[in-house]
Design goal:
about 160 residues; alpha+beta; 4-stranded antiparallel beta sheet; about 25% strand
């Protein structure tokens, strides 16, 4: 079986959007550098100027990172392995079927309980509901293929 790849969030992979993100990130870092160099005297104390520089720098770095395609959150399901990338700056985690004790399905999240006792949670948003259903359907098929215990939990709000 081939690996099925699902994004967990915005799936805009258009080349124009990537270029705009990189340009916007570069602009943010440039403005932060401008603030740092030309307004050094006004932000000598612990004021909001340093917060502005740090925010623009980190936001610009994130935009460049996303424009290069490295900020994608995804889940990839193959025969006996699930690769999960929940955080944009950390590498993907591989979970083998033999190491998984139970998978719990909630309306807006999926909980993986590993045999080591570790719990890994995927939280879904409400914006991309169609892709959430596809992920849950694929994980249900994965559970039945690999004989993993599962539970569907309904939450009442």
């Amino acid at each position: 079986m081939e690996t099925k790849h699902y994004t967990l969030g915005n799936n805009e992979n258009n080349r124009l959007i990537k270029i705009i993100r990189i340009l916007f990130g570069s602009t943010c870092i440039g403005i932060a550098g401008f603030w740092l160099i030309f307004n050094m005297k006004s932000i000598t104390g612990p004021g909001s100027g340093w917060v502005t520089v740090l925010f623009l720098s980190f936001f610009g770095f994130y935009q460049i990172w996303a424009g290069m395609g490295k900020a994608e959150r995804y889940i990839a399901v193959s025969d006996d392995t699930i690769n999960l990338k929940k955080f944009i700056f950390l590498p993907a985690k591989a979970m083998k079927a033999a190491d998984t004790q139970k998978i719990e399905f909630y309306p807006l999240k999926v909980t993986f309980i590993l045999k080591t006792g570790k719990v890994i949670i995927i939280r879904f948003g409400t914006t991309y509901y169609e892709s959430n259903e596809k992920v849950i359907d694929e994980l249900s098929a994965y559970v039945s293929r690999n004989n993993i215990a599962s539970q569907i939990i309904e939450e009442n709000i």
